[in-house]
Amino acid sequence: MALSEQEILEGLAEIVNEETGLEPEEVQMDKSFTEDLDIDSLSMMTIVVNAEDKFGVRIPDDEVKNLTHVRDAVTYIANNQG
Amino acid sequence: MTDTTAEPSTTGRKTITVPGSIRHARIHGLGGYRPERVVTNEEICEFIDSSDEWIQQRSGIVTRRFAREDETVVDMAEAAARQALDRAGISADQIGVVIMATVSHPYQTPAAAPILAHRLQIPNPAAFDISAACAGYCHGISLANDMVRAGTADYVLVVGVEKLSDFTDKYDRGSAFIFGDGAGAAVVGVSDVPGIGPTLWGSLGDKADVITQRESWTDLRPAMVEEHREEAIEWPAFVMQGQTVFRWAVFSMAEVAVEAVEAAGLTPGDLDAFVPHQANVRITDAMIKRLGLPEHVPVARDIAETGNTSAASIPLAMARMLDEGEAPSGGLALQIGFGAGLVYAAQVVVMP
């Protein structure tokens, strides 16, 4: 069964926490990965690949630059989950 | 042929399992050369909008070495090779093949290897260069291993050398801080026990544009004709798409690394050192995590003071670990090179 956006957000927050040590509750829909969460491009790549594994989606390199905010990532995963 | 495993060593370490053969090969000696001039991040930041802190955080690089303007890849290779021969206790006339892995020898022809062989007074060896970028050294070790095992040569000199400062765009914020210069060399020769495990290697030519010389040499031609000078390129430096490389290096190469360990009949816990190509400390760290490498296995971090020296990085890093007592002579090391092509090669070796 497809995961809800809330479930995806929670899963993504766990991945961000593992990579950066940020508290999961800081990972909110309206936050920017770079500006608000201070996640650099290399950490972002790690988060993307871990998200692919966790949610069974494929996020191409070219797509990653469009995922500027947490909401973008959650929406992309929700729309593309297998 | 049947599989062959040597008698367990007295240290209790496992030995590498390889297909049966009449001969085994191992690395008899390693040598390294680092140019004298230390280049700080502050110096790099004279040309790019960056900072020491940013560079360290993104790459782990604190300093790197740049060769003198008049210092060539052959000069650097010679210094590393002499040390490797000396440490191996092998004389120049015992060397049958000289393989140079480099992408920064600035002559299309002739190759650098015959010149190096002549400098070292190696009498009439087979001598040629290979172009496999940051995986060049591991490709060379694989070729040397096969040659020795098959009886093509008794001793092969493998040198990884780069003068990347000649091909770095010092104004490119994405790559100017990454590259360094240096040389590493190995003498591979006949052995009583297996010393080089099976090589896992491959290529992805569809990603040739991810790390590349920005333009071809022929794009320089207009610069030679006055009326076409506006079409001329400045200099065909090496450029890369950092994020794409990072993703490939960490996630695909970790799988290759595991396969190389398994192919040698080992598990990651059996290793005495992990020596990945020194591309970026963030790649190394993410790879370790992905590999599930046990904490007791020391990991090469030569990049901090050497930068990314492409084909030279693995032998330089391994030589440093041995010199500083961080890794034991006779221990098992997993080495993996990956870079422009994209190409990669990995194998477990017994450290000299």
TrEMBL record, chain A:
Modified residues (O-(pantetheine 4'-phosphoryl)serine): S41
Domain Carrier: 6-81
Keywords recorded for this protein, A-Z: Cytoplasm, Fatty acid biosynthesis, Fatty acid metabolism, Lipid biosynthesis, Lipid metabolism, Phosphopantetheine, Phosphoprotein
Primary residence: cytoplasm
InterPro entries: ACP, ACP-like_sf, PP-bd_ACP
Listed GO MF terms: acyl binding; acyl carrier activity
Gene Ontology CC: cytosol; membrane
GO biological process: lipid A biosynthetic process
Pfam families (alphabetical): PP-binding (PF00550)
PROSITE patterns referenced in this protein's UniProt entry, alphabetically: CARRIER
The record's account of how the chain is modified after translation: 4'-phosphopantetheine is transferred from CoA to a specific serine of apo-ACP by AcpS. This modification is essential for activity because fatty acids are bound in thioester linkage to the sulfhydryl of the prosthetic group.
Protein's pathway: Lipid metabolism; fatty acid biosynthesis
Subcellular locations according to the entry: Cytoplasm
HAMAP family (UniProt xref): Acyl_carrier
Family under the similarity heading: Belongs to the acyl carrier protein (ACP) family.
Stated role: Carrier of the growing fatty acid chain in fatty acid biosynthesis.
Protein name per Swiss-Prot or TrEMBL: Acyl carrier protein
Native source organism of the sequence: Ornithinimicrobium tianjinense
From TrEMBL, chain B:
UniProt EC number: 2.3.1.180
Domain Beta-ketoacyl-[acyl-carrier-protein] synthase III C-terminal: from-to ranges: 262-349
Main enzyme class: transferase
A GO term for molecular function: beta-ketoacyl-acyl-carrier-protein synthase III activity
One Pfam family named in its UniProt record: ACP_syn_III
Pathway where it operates: Lipid metabolism; fatty acid biosynthesis
GO biological process terms, semicolon-separated: fatty acid biosynthetic process; secondary metabolite biosynthetic process
GO terms under cellular component: cytoplasm
Biological role: Catalyzes the condensation reaction of fatty acid synthesis by the addition to an acyl acceptor of two carbons from malonyl-ACP. Catalyzes the first condensation reaction which initiates fatty acid synthesis and may therefore play a role in governing the total rate of fatty acid production. Possesses both acetoacetyl-ACP synthase and acetyl transacylase activities. Its substrate specificity determines the biosynthesis of branched-chain and/or straight-chain of fatty acids.
Assembly and binders: Homodimer.
Name of the protein: Beta-ketoacyl-[acyl-carrier-protein] synthase III
Species for this entry: Ornithinimicrobium tianjinense
Gene: fabH1
